Each structure stands twice: as C-alpha cells, then as structure tokens.
Amino acid sequence: LKLADSLDALGAAAAKLREDMAPYYKEVREMWLKDTEALRQELTKDLEEVKEKIRPFLDQFSAKWTEELEQYRQRLAPVAQELKELTKQKVELMQEKLTPVAEEARDRLRGHVEELRKSLAPYNEELRQKLSQKLEEIREKGIPQAAEYQAKVVEQLSNMREKVTPLVQELKERLTPYAESLKTRFIALLDDLQ
Questions:
Q1: How is the chain classified by DSSP, letter by letter?
Q2: Separation of alpha carbons 80 and 71, rounded Å
Q3: pLDDT in tens, 90-137
Q4: Across 149-171, average pLDDT
Q5: For position 81, what pLDDT does the model report?
Q6: Phi and psi dihedrals of 87, rounded to 5?
Q7: Which of 28, 59, 13 shows the shortest CA–CA distance to 161?
Q8: Out of 60, 89, 155, 182, which residue is the most buried by the measure of CB atoms under 10 Å away?
Q9: Is the dihedral of CA 106, 112, 116, 118 positive or negative?
C-alpha cells in the first residue's frame, strides 16, 4: 500500500510538473517560430522561384508523355478488342505482341525522365547552393536569442530537478525496507534450497 501511495504521489507530481512546464514550452516554441519566420519566408520564396523556373520543363514532360500515352492507347485499342474475343490459347500470343510495346513505352519514359533530370539539374544545384548558404548563415550568426533559449531550458531543468528530487528520495526511502526484506527472504530461500 505504501508503494502504491508513493507511485500515486510520483504520478501526481509528474502530472503537475507537465502542467507547470506547458506554458514555458509554449513560450519557447512561440519564440522559435517568431525567430525563424523570416528564414522560412526566404526559403519559401527561393523554392517558389525555382518552381517557376522548372515549371516549363515539367509541363513539356507532361505534354510529351500524355501524347505518347494516347498513341500507345490507340495502338493497343485493337489488341484489347481482340483480347476480349480470344480464347485462353491466344492470350499467350497476345502477351507476346504486348511485351515489346510495353518495353518500348518503358524505355521512352526512361528517356523522357533522363532528359527532364538533365534539364532540372542546374536548378537543383542552384536550390542546393541557396539552402547551403542559408544554413551557413545560421551557423555563422546563430539563431537569434539562442542564449535566451538556453537559459530558459536550463532554468526549466533546474525547476524540474528541484521538484522531482524530493519525490525520488521519498520513493527510495519507502522502497528500501521492502528491498531489504526481499533480499533477506531471497537469501533465506537460497539457503533452504542448498
């Protein structure tokens, strides 16, 4: 019963600590969001610029592939109609006819994807460089109010340590007699077994 009471007290203290920490967490989070808002806006702007630059390539890729899909659909329409009328024996023959068309479509798609990748490579590099530059700026300048964040975190950890230490000590004191009793019984049991 004492152990249950101690665990209940520890649980209540942990809930109270969580409740006490909530405003500090919220405050630190809001400070972080406010301080990083400019950086987020800058990165969003850079991404939008890159998106606008690559949009023509994506549109061209989409148009080419849509056109080719329509051509394949037209080429396969008679085959599909034929398939409906075929017996099981002819299905294998039809698969043989379809395989080269499917392979050609796959190869052409790979070619378009490779062409698109080559077209987008400079923009990818540009975006990577801008991101690296932003990260370097953060490394050099640091996040605004980083010292304030650190001070708040240290303060909260100290508060938490002050609140939890007595509870842990009390729990330890209450559990010690039970542990000693259990140890004595275990040794007695080992002696009996010998």
A1: -HHHHHHHHHHHHHHHHHHHHHHHHHHHHHHHHHHHHHHHHHHHHHHHHHHHHHHHHHHHHHHHHHHHHHHHHHHHHHHHHHHHH--HHHHHHHHHHHHHHHHHHHHHHHHHHHHHHHHHHHHHHHHHHHHHHHHHHHHHH--TTHHHHHHHHHHHHHHHHHHHHHHHHHHHHHHHHHHHHHHHHHHHHHHHH-
A2: 14
A3: 777 777 777 887 788 888 888 888 887 788 788 778 778 888 887 787
A4: 73
A5: 77
A6: -90, 170
A7: 13
A8: 60
A9: positive
pLDDT digits over 15-71, tens only? 877 787 888 778 888 887 887 787 788 888 888 888 888 888 888 888 888 898 888
Terminal C-alpha separation, the chain: 33
| Angle 177-173-16 from CA coordinates, rounded to 5° | 135
In terms of pLDDT, which residue wins out, 154 or 61? 61
Whole-angstrom CA distances from 151 to 27, 88, 155, 157, 178 are: 13, 77, 6, 10, 41
AA identity, residue 50 = V
Look up tokens 């002696």; give the residue.
191
Residue with tokens 């209540």: 12
